[in-house]
Structures are given as C-alpha cells and as structure tokens.
Amino acid sequence: xxxxxxxxxxxxxxxxxxxxxxxxxxxxxxxxxxxxxxxxxxxxxxxxxxxxxxxxxxxxxxxxxxxxxxxxxxxxxxx
Length: 79
What we know:
Distance between the termini: 17 Å
Number of domains: 1
Radius of gyration: 16 Å
C-alpha cells in the first residue's frame, strides 16, 4: 500500500501544481504536454480526481491505518 500512497501523492502534487499554474498564470501544463481534451489529458485528470477520492477516504475512514503504515518502526512492526 505504500506504493499506492506514493503514486496518489505524486498525482495530487501534479494536480495541485497544474491548478496553481492555471489560477496564477492561466497556463494549463497538462493540456500543453498532452493536448487539449485528448485521451491522455483526460486520463491524467481522472487519475488526479480518483487520487483525491482515495485521500478523502483515507482521512475519513482509515486515517489510523495510514498513519500506522507510514509511522511503523521496526520495533513496533507486526510479524
């Protein structure tokens, strides 16, 4: 699950940076790289949206599980 958490975090950072660029400068980086409303750009937008839903679910229902997954030390690890 750590790999999924890292991928989700990267996608959310990409989405946040893209929204910041759009808000401050009117520049859509995703559309510039992949084209306006292409399959690839729509896929990236969809993945960013799914990543946000995953994070909402993690904070709402499983925050303790996520916290333990990231903060587990070798001494407290379950074998």
